[in-house]
């Protein structure tokens, strides 16, 4: 997945992904989610400071993903970013 293209003024992370946190997101969440939807059925986003994850934007993609237990796990212990120490212990993504 490639990062979504940004509308002027929308927050982007250092990786060029939409940011789903912070004051700019809080002020314009619908525009940020629209930006993600334009990127396709799934797109990378920063869900907390420095924490990136794929965000599913289409119902069919969510259903397919949740039913494909051979490729994807619902177990957070398999989250690569967590296993590699990229998610701070105090991150809101851990709540």
Give a description of the structure.
This protein is of the alpha+beta class and about 100 residues long. About 30% of the residues lie in helices and about 15% in strands. It has a two-stranded antiparallel ribbon with strand order 1-2. A hairpin with a 2-residue loop joins strand 1 and strand 2 (about 50-55). The radius of gyration is 14 Å and the shape is flat. The two termini are about 25 Å apart.
Task: Summarize it.
Helix content is 32%, strand content 14%. It has helices at residues 22-27, 29-39, 59-67, 80-83; strands at residues 42-48, 51-56.
Give the SSE layout.
Layout: H1 22-27, H2 29-39, E1 42-48, E2 51-56, H3 59-67, H4 80-83
Antiparallel strand pairs: 1-2
Count the beta strands. 2
Q: Roughly what fraction of the amino acids lie in strands?
A: 5-15%
Rg, nearest Å: 14 Å
User: Which runs of at least 5 residues are low in confidence (pLDDT < 50)?
Assistant: none
Q: What sort of overall outline do the alpha carbons produce when their principal axes are compared?
A: flat
Return the structural class. Answer: alpha+beta
Order of the strands making up the biggest sheet: 1-2
Instruction: Give the end-to-end Cα distance, rounded to a whole number of Å.
Output: 26 Å
Percent helix, as a range, is 25-40%
The average pLDDT score comes to: 82
Short key terms for the protein model shown above:
2 strands, two-stranded antiparallel sheet, 95 residues, alpha+beta, single chain
